[in-house]
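User: Fold this; tokens only.

Assistant: Input:
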Amino acid sequence: MAITDWPLDDRPREKLLAKGPQALSDAELVAIFLRTGIKGKSAVELARDQLTRFGSLSALAGAANESFCAEPGLGPAKYAQLQAALEIARRTLREKLEAGAAMSAPGAVRDYLRLLLHARPHEVFVAVFLDAQHRVVASEELFRGTLTQTSVYPREVVKRALHFNAAAVIFAHNHPSGVAEPSRADEALTAALKQALALVDVRVLDHFVVAGDGALSFAERGIL
């Protein structure tokens, strides 16, 4: 049955307008993005198929172009629209961080870093530099590695902190394996960075490990 034949209250677009986006399932949200289905499948059914195929909403959002476009009903135009929507979300969160104190909105920090890093196929190390009022000065990808590791050099991190005249910094890196648990190497690196930055009066406020749909905070774990 086509979506146009559904009762009005069950149609994803009408449901969103009446109840807000939070009332929709993942499949219904993806269906609105897809707009149309294919022969024999409504947009919602096509969306369910893709969520099953990729395993989760975040995996679908982070899919590579070739993988995304491999299925009927999807293509370069929809892939470009999806990437544009994700970038709008990233920039919106970044603007929210830059408009106020980062540590007064820890949820926004976590969400921004998750959107930035969760779909990367290789390890990436990011620093968010803050001023004395903990407002965001800059966010930079400092190092990029392989599927399982990346090399981070404290001296270079200190140089970038001094360049931005930062008073504090929040670090983040991703685990493409999907396991957010920090390794001993992650903890040792954080300690080394904290020690190096303390020499130039820059505080390390947190270090997030982004994996899958989650982001683990060193500060919340009490291991910073």
